Amino acid sequence: MRSLFACVLVLWCVGFARDQLDSYVDATVLPVLVHATSPEVRDRNGVLLRAYTIEDGLWRMELSPDQVDPLFYKMLIAYEDKRFYQHGGIDPLATVRAFGQAVRHGRVVSGASTLTMQVARLLEDGSTGRWDGKLRQMRLALALERQLGKEQILAIYLRIAPYGGNIEGLRAASLAWLGKEPKRLTPAEAAFLVSLPQAPESRRPDRHPEAARIARDRVLMRMVQAGVIDTETALAGQSDPAPNGRHAVPQLAPHMSDRAISAGPGRYDLTLDANVQQSLETLVADHMASRDPRLSMAIVVADHQSGEILASVGSPDYTGTVGQGFVDMTQALRSPGSTLKPLVYGLAFDRGLAHPETLILDTPVQFGAYAPQNFDGVFRGELSVRRALQLSLNIPVIRLTEALGSAHLLAAMKQAGTKPQLQGGAPGLALSLGGLGVSLQDMVQLYAALARGGESVPLRWLSEREAEAARRILSPASAWQVGHILAGVTPPALAGPPGRVAYKTGTSYGHRDAWALGWDGQFVAGVWIGRPDGTPVPGAFGGSDAAPVLFQALERARLKSVPLPPPPPETLLVARAQLPLNLQRFGPRQKASGLRLTFPPDGARLEAAAGGVPIKLRGGVPPFTLLVDGAVGLSGLYRPDFITPPMGPGFTKLSVVDAQGNSGRVSIELQ
């Protein structure tokens, strides 16, 4: 009653002391009109990826007029302040009506607060029950109307109105209670959002769903009376299920969002696609759900033509503690295993050291104290460079690395925009087998250069950052040759026939990291699996663990399949016999007179002895390596005569390879 009496008193003052009132209002000091809003990260289409609370854990989100359904505005004005656009902050007619109703009923039946007065109360967090507080709100409302436009006042209301709990403002309320942006609302949803600020705690749908429904339905019927909607629409809205719980605010791309807001609060627009990001986060979570919780997985997908990252998943569970989900494994330095081999081959093609049809030796070799071995311990003799890359053999790529120079390989990686970290001092030959640290995002950037025909464009994830100039690391022909070879690798089961995706897998030393990287005609992707603490994962392989996920990631990223490009005109597509002589074989060739096994003779039948078979050599350059049926039997031999390890009865192939790759072989039968 006191508040209503105060309102009438003010109206009387307006009529009899207008000049004094003008001075009184003009002297009003406005409170702070700018309020902190939740930092936001959005995707390439403006879709919210992630938001963060502000001080005191509040959700208060920026909102522009075009982000609100027009129906909500109509309902809000009709329900709260139907003469909002006619009055100057105080509605005299509403005040007189409220006063008359209070006199007749002896209690307050309806209020006289305008939307502007509600904004004044919210700005000062003032009381509505005390007459002095009401007078202050009226004075501030008049001042707001004089200094701000109607749309500005309405925008403040929509930003700071209480919606229950730690939720302020229409947009945060729509996301929390409806799980959607307020741009498209049903009549029932709009009515619910109009009703909630009147009693935000007693109508919270997560605690008082029935009260929330009743309040919503009341607004719908009032809208029929106001002519905003018809009766049929109102009844249909009342039959809609009312909100009964709280939705989580979108929390996509948490690691990349954290990287974005590390620069400070505000709004950040990323190159990510929310749909692709959501799909890949689900893929990672589902794939890792039944596996060791200490394992992590990361995926990066990018458009290799523009350099824009479309999705980046740093772990299966951002909040997980056992698997250190808070660590963004797209940025962690890890050993890339065999995934650097395509770059080595591309550089060798560029420098005229090899061609896909060039023959290269996969035989024991030693460079000083370094004697590389294949992953399976088997040597395959002479084979084509194409096949050596497809089989991911170690010895052929080490031979090429030695000819190129490890420093040139490292320089090419840096030219591609990656930031490799050496584990020791100067780069050694093991560099091409993963003997350095590099991030998944950098490896995807390197593969994007292969996909772009040898041109590297640094990947970017902030929309405002302009694309950088491309830098060439390989010729178009060499890059295409590498891609053509990798496209011939048999895909994982159910991934379709070869030729659609060029891909390479890798497993680092000790099974610590499983990798798969590849591309099609538009997208490039990389998958990493391992433990963030770097401990071994027994049985982990890039081919069996990471490759299937790579193909699924590319499938989810693309709207349509884009084929790999045709060869550039300058590409040399000939059989080995048509190659120049220096490209028909790489490195030292096997010489028939260079190394011979003089004992045992080829085809000999010998008695199986417990002490092994004597071997005698002529020629060759030590150290020698003995292979028994393709597997290393002895190595580091410097004498031309020695004894093999014990062998059982049956047919056996014995091969001896010297330091220059020359070899001699015999077949014998032990009885």
Automatic annotation (TrEMBL):
Q: Which keywords does UniProt give here? A: Carboxypeptidase, Glycosyltransferase, Hydrolase, Multifunctional enzyme, Protease, Transferase
The Penicillin-binding C-terminal domain sits at 590-668
Pathway assignment reads: Cell wall biogenesis; peptidoglycan biosynthesis
Q: Which InterPro entries match?
A: Beta-lactam/transpept-like, Glyco_trans_51, Glycosyltr_51/Transpeptidase, Lysozyme-like_dom_sf, PBP_1c, PBP_C, PBP_transglycosylase, PCN-bd_Tpept
Among the record's GO biological process terms, what is one? peptidoglycan biosynthetic process
Where is each Penicillin-binding protein transpeptidase domain found?
Answer: 297-509
Q: What class of enzyme is it?
A: transferase
UniProt lists the family membership as follows: In the N-terminal section; belongs to the glycosyltransferase 51 family. In the C-terminal section; belongs to the transpeptidase family.
**Name the record gives this protein:** peptidoglycan glycosyltransferase
**What is the species listed in this Swiss-Prot or TrEMBL entry?**
Pelagimonas varians
